[in-house]
Amino acid sequence: MSSTWCDIPVNDAKNIAQSFINNPIHGITGYSDYFVDYDEQTEVLLSYQDIIDFQYDRNYIYAGIIYLANKSNSIFEDQLQLNVSDSVNFWTTFDASAYYQGSSKRFVVWNDISLFPNTQVFFMGYKFTLVDNPNIPNVRILTEDGDFLMTENGFNLIT
Amino acid sequence: MSSTWIVTPPENAKEVVERYINDPTHGLTIYSGATLSYDPDCEVYLDYNVFKGSFTFNPLHLYFGFLSCGGPVGSEENTLRLTIDDGSNDFITFDASIAPISQCTVPLIWNNGLSASANMASFIGYKFNVILP
Lengths: 159, 133
Prior knowledge:
The complex is a heterodimer of chains A (159) and B (133).
Chain A: H1 10-22, E1 34-37, E2 43-46, H2 48-52, E3 60-69, E4 81-85, E5 90-95, E6 104-110, E7 112-115, E8 120-132, E9 139-143, E10 146-151, E11 154-157
Antiparallel strand pairs in A: 1-8, 2-8, 3-6, 3-8, 4-5, 4-7, 9-10, 10-11
Chain B: H1 10-22, E1 35-37, E2 43-46, H2 48-54, E3 61-70, E4 81-85, E5 90-95, E6 103-110, E7 112-115, E8 120-131
Antiparallel strand pairs in B: 1-8, 2-8, 3-6, 3-8, 4-5, 4-7
């Protein structure tokens, strides 16, 4: 599978999502030690109805391009609000009410919708899996200075 | 074949469209288990006249790409409505009546137009062949 489904290559999008959820400024503490992962079915296209039917799942996060196809003077109509939510804390990443909209296309990281749109919205990007506290296997490293065990806590001399 | 007709390479688009039509939430039961293929000439550009009325629906064809609409500002006239239609069921992927469009470019999958556009519309993308199970 090519990594260029949309404007942003998949690994770049993953790295941005990873940095975003781990950034303490965003206050999404439930994801502080989570890792972002993906498989060969990571590319997604969500049309308007898919977004209206969207179901929140804290185990997933989306990164990609949100397209809005609005009436040019729809400032009072478009109420789409997207967040990154760990189910306790959230950070708003897109809020159509914050500015005059018209049509637009922009990069966004999200996994929850708090205000559903009533105008045409499309999302083209990646659906990533959030992995909790991954197990780092203990790796034994043999050197002339001794044997070290690499763990979550760093390197420990064992012999 | 060029892989840069649009940003998305055709192989990526094919796989996503296959998953989309096989997603049971979209209700396209005739397409259940269907796969897609494409020809060297799968890159298509459909101009205003196609959406104006010359388009012919074929359930064994599916389109993925970017639709551009360019109606008058504040227009209430655009009636373009696009669906994925398996011959028995359909799933709406674009409906201009939800919000009158001034100008937009959006990604979508479709193969049928329930109502011709009254405004300027064009499409650039890929045409896939449906292989029913």
